[in-house]
């Protein structure tokens, strides 16, 4: 099966391309390289030994997308391509709504026109906002997202649901990610944040590598065991494998108006300080950090109840947070020595 991976040169996209190949799928990558570079394609080639077709295309460019669909006959689409910086989305909401939602609709129209039967959407746990109960299940009510970025994921899910139910002939699954961390064990691909990382783990690895002076832990007065926020940190390779399972589930569906949503998390929550301590232990490094004020918009605690993805897709998180933090550190060491 030939699968279009939009944003396939990105963090989760690149790891998913590797897992698709391992599972016998034929990935085709499109990416506008706004938040990535061609070196990632080299890393994928070193891991898989293959040169997958790559097109430098912006998913908002209807003409280019249609030309691609005329050229390549796809059996499925995994749509990662989107802007994803929470803070930036608060400053530039229209850029986020325009880029993330127009690109989604361009792809959905193309899928319908060119009869691509399967569509997997990259959604996020941000659709839950601060849940009243944890762990969250797929039936936990969605809340107004804390940011325009999170809102594009919630609206994106609604667009896809309505589109599938309008007999588009396209089956779809939305995967709600929790906190993807880590890198491929080869250290040939990993997270490449542009500029100052907003996410926790790349900031930690850059601090430990001496590229940042110190990490600020945003708040230690939350209602948790050590006062810092709780998250569900999932290894990016485990997350990538969930996309393969989602495609397999879609391909097995006979109902052409099939749509479903899955939480993809480990089912375990750890605090920021527990993650920091684990990072220091597994890597034998001391991290420079201070406790600072809370970050606006942060959710206090959230982690997944992952029964549905376990039972329906037979997907289970196989790697631990410790595995992810070791892989993240090995990756940081690799890119730091290359600079
Ligand atoms: C995690 C925890 C911070 C940086 C975001 C997106 C979400 C998803 C994952 C895409 C929080 C704390 C962080 C730092 C810190 N992305 N932190 N110091 O905000 O949980 O979720 O990324 O799907 O959609 O919203 O991730 O890594 O920014 O923060 O103390 O320098 O680490 O306060 O508690 P977040 P994060």
How is this structure best described in words?
The structure is a single chain. With 339 residues, this protein is α/β, with parallel strands linked by helices. Helix content is 41%, strand content 16%. The protein has eleven helices and 13 strands. The strands form four sheets. A seven-stranded parallel sheet has the order 3-2-1-4-5-6-11, with helices on both faces. A two-stranded parallel sheet has the order 7-10. The protein is globular. The mean pLDDT is 96. Bound molecules: UDP-4-deoxy-4-formamido-beta-L-arabinopyranose (WQD). Residues 84, 86, 124, 126, 177, 179, 198-200, 203, 215-218, 229, 231, 272, 295, 298 line the site of UDP-4-deoxy-4-formamido-beta-L-arabinopyranose.
Brief overview:
Its EC number is 5.1.3.2. The protein has 339 residues and is an alpha/beta fold.
Can you tag this structure with a few keywords?
single chain, 339 residues, alpha/beta, Rossmann fold, 7-stranded parallel β-sheet, two-stranded parallel ribbon, 11 helices, 16% strand, binds UDP-4-deoxy-4-formamido-beta-L-arabinopyranose, UDP-glucose 4-epimerase activity, carbohydrate metabolism
The geometry reads as: globular
Q: What is the CA-CA span between the terminal residues?
A: 38 Å
In sequence order, what are the helices and strands, one letter per element?
Answer: EHEHEHEHHEHEEHEEEHEEHEHH
- What's the helical proportion of residues? 40-55%
Spatial order of the strands in the main sheet? 3-2-1-4-5-6-11
- How big a fraction of the residues is strand? 15-25%
Under the CATH scheme, the architecture of the domain at 2-181 and 235-265 and 305-317 is 3-Layer(aba) Sandwich
């Amino acid at each position: 099966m030939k699968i279009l991976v939009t944003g396939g040169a990105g963090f989760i996209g690149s790891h998913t391309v590797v897992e698709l190949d391992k599972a016998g799928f034929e990935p085709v990558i499109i990416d506008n390289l706004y938040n990535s570079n061609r070196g990632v394609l080299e890393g994928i080639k070193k891991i898989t030994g293959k040169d997958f077709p790559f097109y430098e295309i912006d998913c908002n460019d209807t003409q280019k997308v249609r030309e691609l669909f005329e050229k390549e006959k796809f059996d499925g689409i995994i749509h990662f391509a989107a802007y994803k910086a929470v803070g930036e989305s608060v400053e530039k909401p229209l850029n986020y709504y325009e880029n993330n939602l127009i690109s989604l609709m361009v792809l959905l129209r193309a899928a319908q026109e060119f009869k691509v039967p399967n569509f997997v959407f990259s959604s996020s746990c941000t659709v839950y906002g601060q849940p009243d109960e944890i762990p969250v299940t797929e039936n936990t009510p969605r809340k107004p997202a804390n940011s325009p970025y999170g809102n594009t994921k919630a609206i994106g899910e609604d667009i896809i649901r309505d589109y599938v139910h309008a007999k588009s002939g396209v089956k779809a699954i939305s995967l709600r990610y929790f906190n993807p961390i880590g890198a491929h064990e080869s250290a040939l691909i990993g997270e490449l944040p542009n500029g100052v990382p907003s996410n926790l783990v790349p900031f930690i690895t850059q601090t430990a590598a001496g590229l940042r002076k110190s990490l600020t832990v945003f708040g230690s007065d939350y209602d948790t065991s050590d006062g810092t926020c709780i998250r569900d940190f999932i290894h990016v390779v485990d997350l990538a494998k969930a996309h393969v399972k989602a495609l397999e589930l879609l391909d097995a569906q006979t109902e052409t108006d099939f749509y479903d949503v899955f939480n993809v998390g480990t089912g375990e929550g750890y605090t920021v300080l527990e993650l920091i301590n684990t990072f220091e232990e597994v890597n034998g490094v001391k991290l420079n950090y201070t406790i600072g004020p809370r970050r606006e918009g942060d959710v206090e605690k959230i982690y997944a109840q992952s029964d549905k993805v376990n039972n329906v897709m037979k997907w289970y998180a196989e790697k631990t947070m410790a595995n992810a933090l070791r892989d993240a550190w090995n990756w940081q060491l690799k890119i730091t020595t290359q600079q």
